[in-house]
Design brief:
This is AGRG4 protein. Keywords: Membrane, Transmembrane, Transmembrane helix. The protein is mainly alpha-helical. It has one domain. It is 73% helix and 6% strand. The protein contains four helices and two strands, in the order H-H-H-E-E-H. It has helices at residues 2-13, 18-50, 61-82, 109-153; strands at residues 89-93, 102-106. A two-stranded antiparallel sheet has the order 1-2. Helix 1 runs antiparallel to helix 2, helix 2 (18-50) runs antiparallel to helix 3 and helix 2 (18-50) packs parallel to helix 4 (109-153). The relative contact order is 0.14.
Length: 154
Protein backbone atom coordinates (compact mmCIF):
# COMPACT_ATOMS: atom_id res chain seq x y z
CA UNK A 1 0.00 0.00 0.00
CA UNK A 2 2.90 2.34 0.68
CA UNK A 3 4.13 1.86 -2.87
CA UNK A 4 0.66 2.35 -4.36
CA UNK A 5 0.01 5.56 -2.44
CA UNK A 6 3.52 6.83 -3.16
CA UNK A 7 3.33 6.12 -6.89
CA UNK A 8 -0.09 7.72 -7.30
CA UNK A 9 0.65 10.63 -4.97
CA UNK A 10 1.78 13.18 -7.57
CA UNK A 11 -1.10 12.27 -9.88
CA UNK A 12 -3.65 12.60 -7.05
CA UNK A 13 -2.23 15.97 -6.01
CA UNK A 14 -3.11 17.38 -9.44
CA UNK A 15 -6.80 17.41 -8.46
CA UNK A 16 -6.08 20.39 -6.15
CA UNK A 17 -8.57 19.18 -3.53
CA UNK A 18 -7.33 20.11 -0.07
CA UNK A 19 -9.18 17.39 1.84
CA UNK A 20 -8.26 14.75 -0.69
CA UNK A 21 -4.59 15.71 -0.57
CA UNK A 22 -4.58 15.69 3.24
CA UNK A 23 -6.07 12.17 3.19
CA UNK A 24 -3.45 10.96 0.72
CA UNK A 25 -0.67 12.51 2.82
CA UNK A 26 -2.00 10.85 5.98
CA UNK A 27 -2.24 7.49 4.22
CA UNK A 28 1.31 7.86 2.97
CA UNK A 29 2.46 8.79 6.47
CA UNK A 30 0.63 5.82 8.02
CA UNK A 31 1.90 3.23 5.54
CA UNK A 32 5.47 4.52 5.82
CA UNK A 33 5.37 4.15 9.60
CA UNK A 34 3.73 0.73 9.27
CA UNK A 35 6.50 -0.48 6.96
CA UNK A 36 9.17 0.50 9.47
CA UNK A 37 7.18 -0.94 12.39
CA UNK A 38 6.91 -4.27 10.59
CA UNK A 39 10.66 -4.18 9.99
CA UNK A 40 11.16 -3.79 13.73
CA UNK A 41 8.84 -6.73 14.37
CA UNK A 42 10.87 -8.77 11.88
CA UNK A 43 14.02 -8.10 13.89
CA UNK A 44 12.28 -9.21 17.09
CA UNK A 45 11.18 -12.38 15.31
CA UNK A 46 14.77 -12.81 14.07
CA UNK A 47 15.95 -12.65 17.68
CA UNK A 48 13.35 -15.17 18.84
CA UNK A 49 14.15 -17.56 15.99
CA UNK A 50 17.95 -17.50 16.33
CA UNK A 51 18.55 -16.93 20.04
CA UNK A 52 15.50 -18.23 21.88
CA UNK A 53 15.09 -21.23 19.57
CA UNK A 54 13.51 -23.62 22.04
CA UNK A 55 10.84 -23.12 24.65
CA UNK A 56 9.34 -19.99 23.15
CA UNK A 57 5.62 -20.10 23.03
CA UNK A 58 3.87 -16.79 22.84
CA UNK A 59 0.10 -17.15 22.86
CA UNK A 60 -1.57 -15.43 19.90
CA UNK A 61 1.83 -14.29 18.59
CA UNK A 62 0.60 -13.34 15.11
CA UNK A 63 -2.34 -11.38 16.55
CA UNK A 64 0.00 -9.45 18.84
CA UNK A 65 2.34 -8.73 15.92
CA UNK A 66 -0.57 -7.50 13.80
CA UNK A 67 -1.85 -5.27 16.57
CA UNK A 68 1.61 -3.77 17.04
CA UNK A 69 2.43 -3.60 13.32
CA UNK A 70 -0.75 -1.83 12.31
CA UNK A 71 -1.71 -0.22 15.63
CA UNK A 72 1.40 1.72 16.61
CA UNK A 73 1.53 3.64 13.30
CA UNK A 74 -2.20 4.30 13.59
CA UNK A 75 -1.71 5.77 17.06
CA UNK A 76 1.08 8.04 15.80
CA UNK A 77 -0.95 9.30 12.84
CA UNK A 78 -4.09 9.79 14.96
CA UNK A 79 -2.05 11.79 17.48
CA UNK A 80 -0.76 13.90 14.61
CA UNK A 81 -4.32 14.38 13.37
CA UNK A 82 -6.05 15.15 16.65
CA UNK A 83 -3.48 16.76 18.92
CA UNK A 84 -1.19 18.40 16.40
CA UNK A 85 -2.41 20.87 13.79
CA UNK A 86 -4.16 19.10 10.90
CA UNK A 87 -2.86 21.73 8.47
CA UNK A 88 0.60 20.18 8.63
CA UNK A 89 -0.46 17.90 5.78
CA UNK A 90 -1.01 19.34 2.35
CA UNK A 91 0.05 19.88 -1.22
CA UNK A 92 3.70 20.67 -1.86
CA UNK A 93 5.93 21.00 -4.88
CA UNK A 94 9.54 20.27 -5.74
CA UNK A 95 9.62 23.03 -8.33
CA UNK A 96 7.15 25.76 -9.24
CA UNK A 97 7.81 25.48 -12.98
CA UNK A 98 7.02 21.75 -13.22
CA UNK A 99 3.33 20.90 -12.53
CA UNK A 100 4.15 17.19 -12.24
CA UNK A 101 6.39 17.75 -9.23
CA UNK A 102 3.41 18.30 -6.90
CA UNK A 103 2.90 15.85 -4.05
CA UNK A 104 0.76 15.46 -0.94
CA UNK A 105 2.92 15.20 2.16
CA UNK A 106 3.83 16.74 5.52
CA UNK A 107 4.41 20.46 5.08
CA UNK A 108 5.89 21.29 8.48
CA UNK A 109 9.55 20.35 9.00
CA UNK A 110 9.30 19.95 12.78
CA UNK A 111 6.41 17.50 12.46
CA UNK A 112 8.35 15.58 9.81
CA UNK A 113 11.39 15.25 12.04
CA UNK A 114 9.36 14.19 15.07
CA UNK A 115 6.85 11.84 13.48
CA UNK A 116 8.99 10.31 10.72
CA UNK A 117 12.73 10.84 11.27
CA UNK A 118 12.67 10.19 15.03
CA UNK A 119 10.42 7.15 14.57
CA UNK A 120 12.69 5.68 11.88
CA UNK A 121 15.76 6.43 14.00
CA UNK A 122 14.24 4.57 16.98
CA UNK A 123 13.43 1.59 14.74
CA UNK A 124 17.00 1.71 13.41
CA UNK A 125 18.41 1.70 16.95
CA UNK A 126 16.16 -1.20 17.92
CA UNK A 127 17.17 -3.22 14.86
CA UNK A 128 20.86 -2.50 15.44
CA UNK A 129 20.59 -3.56 19.10
CA UNK A 130 18.83 -6.81 18.17
CA UNK A 131 21.41 -7.49 15.45
CA UNK A 132 24.30 -6.99 17.89
CA UNK A 133 22.63 -9.22 20.49
CA UNK A 134 22.11 -11.97 17.90
CA UNK A 135 25.73 -11.71 16.74
CA UNK A 136 27.00 -11.94 20.32
CA UNK A 137 24.80 -14.95 21.03
CA UNK A 138 25.94 -16.74 17.87
CA UNK A 139 29.57 -16.01 18.74
CA UNK A 140 29.03 -17.34 22.27
CA UNK A 141 27.45 -20.53 20.89
CA UNK A 142 30.37 -21.00 18.49
CA UNK A 143 32.88 -20.55 21.32
CA UNK A 144 31.06 -23.09 23.49
CA UNK A 145 30.94 -25.58 20.63
CA UNK A 146 34.68 -25.22 19.98
CA UNK A 147 35.46 -25.74 23.68
CA UNK A 148 33.31 -28.90 23.72
CA UNK A 149 35.00 -30.29 20.62
CA UNK A 150 38.47 -29.68 22.15
CA UNK A 151 37.32 -31.40 25.32
CA UNK A 152 36.10 -34.43 23.35
CA UNK A 153 39.38 -34.62 21.41
CA UNK A 154 41.34 -34.77 24.67
Amino acid sequence: MLNMVFLTNSWLSLFNQSGFCITVARLLHYFLLAAFTWRCLESVHFYLALVKVLNIYIPKYILKCCIAGWGIPAIVTVINKIIINKDFYGNGSYSESNPFSNFCWIQENIMFYISIAAYVFLIFLMNTAVFIIVLLQIHAMKTRTQKRSRLWKK
